[in-house]
Amino acid sequence: MLKSFKDVINPDTLEYDLLEKLDTNRMPAHIAVIMDGNGRWAKSRGMTRVEGHKVGAESARKITEYCVRLGIEHLTLFTFSSENWSRPVREINTLMEMLHKNLLTQKELLIKNNIRFSVLGELSRLPGKLRASISETIELSRDHTGMTLHLALNYGGRTEIIDAVKKIIDDGISSQKVNEKKFRKYLYNPDLPDPDLVIRTSGESRISNFLLYQIAYSELIFTDVLWPDFRLKELLGTLIGFQERDRRFGKV
Fold first, then answer.
1. Helix pair 128-140, 89-105: axis angle to 10 deg
2. For the chain, what is the domain count?
3. How far, in Å, CA of 41 to CA of 19, rounded?
4. Sign of torsion, CA 7 31 103 225?
5. Is 19 a member of any domain?
6. Is residue 250 part of a domain?
7. What 3 state SS string does 106-159 have?
8. Which of 8, 17, 119, 147 is at a distance of 20 to 30 A from 154, taking alpha carbons?
9. Around Cβ 70, how many Cβ atoms within 10 Å?
10. What CATH number should be reported for the domain holding residue 210?
11. 205 in any annotated domain
């Protein structure tokens, strides 16, 4: 996989040097990303926040393609949080329209790269045509066997945990029968493996209610790079940083 990647990268670039440093035997199976900084990126350039979101969407597409080439099995992008509804209505409407259009226009990306599409979150609050696009895209990619791309939409980690508890109670399961394996079955996507690596861009060092149950032993990397500027060089740098960590999972 990396060999084919190197074939399209100039050997005289930093990206090529970073690829050379990667250990293909220590790649994370699941990368989760908090894509932060679109607004600040746009403001620093005298542009609107919407324009920042558009460039951020291009970063998401690029990172998805890079992860496929790198052999990553799962990529989860924190696309719209349950707290984002407090943003200006015009911005929210624009984001929802962008998501709808991106799902319609990026199907070729999924087909070309054999990507399976998935979502997690409370989807009932999303606009009807966006939910329809989500369903169509999930069905389109159902039999794909490559990387799975997960979008966290109207997602909040605390709400996911509370919803899981409510479902367990509604199903009449006694406390004695509740363990980690049982609890996981009630999460939004029970088959989603825990992230090995969580990346947050834009210089903020917090989790912001993202995958709170799943990231108990994830490696966290925070970068000052704003999301619209996060491309191959930045991704490879975080992967090398991940490989330099000693993951003990509570053991000696």
1. 30
2. 1
3. 27
4. negative
5. no
6. no
7. CHHHHHHCCCEEEEECCHHHCCHHHHHHHHHHHHHCCCCCCCEEEEEEEECHHH
8. 147
9. 22
10. 3.40.1180.10
11. yes
Residue whose C-alpha is closest to residue 152's, from 121, 177, 173, 180: 121
Domain that holds residue 90: 27-156+194-241
The two three-digit tokens of residue 158, written as one number: 């605390």
Domain membership of residue 56 (yes or no) is yes
Rounded to whole angstroms, what are the CA distances from 99 to 57, 65, 94, 106?
Answer: 9, 18, 9, 10
Q: Quick check: 118 and 32 in contact, CB under 8 A?
A: no
> Tens-of-pLDDT digits for all 252 residues of the chain?
566 677 778 888 999 999 999 999 999 999 999 999 999 999 999 999 999 999 999 999 999 999 999 999 999 999 999 999 999 999 999 999 999 999 988 898 999 999 999 999 999 999 999 999 999 999 999 999 999 999 999 999 999 999 999 999 999 999 999 999 999 999 999 999 999 999 999 999 999 999 999 999 999 999 999 999 999 999 999 999 999 998 877 765
The CA–CA distances, whole Å, from 105 to 79, 207, 243 equal: 17, 30, 35
Neighbouring CB atoms inside 10 A of 225's CB total 19
**What does R_g of the chain's alpha carbons equal in angstroms?**
19
Q: Read off the pTM.
A: 0.95
- For residue 92, the tally of other CB atoms under 10 A from its CB is 15
Residue with tokens 């690829």: 19
Which residues are tagged catalytic? 36, 84
Q: Can you read off the two tokens belonging to residue 170?
A: 């509604």
Q: Say how many C-beta atoms besides its own lie within 10 A of residue 161's C-beta.
A: 15
User: What is the rounded distance in angstroms from the CA atom of residue 91 to the CA atom of residue 96?
Assistant: 9
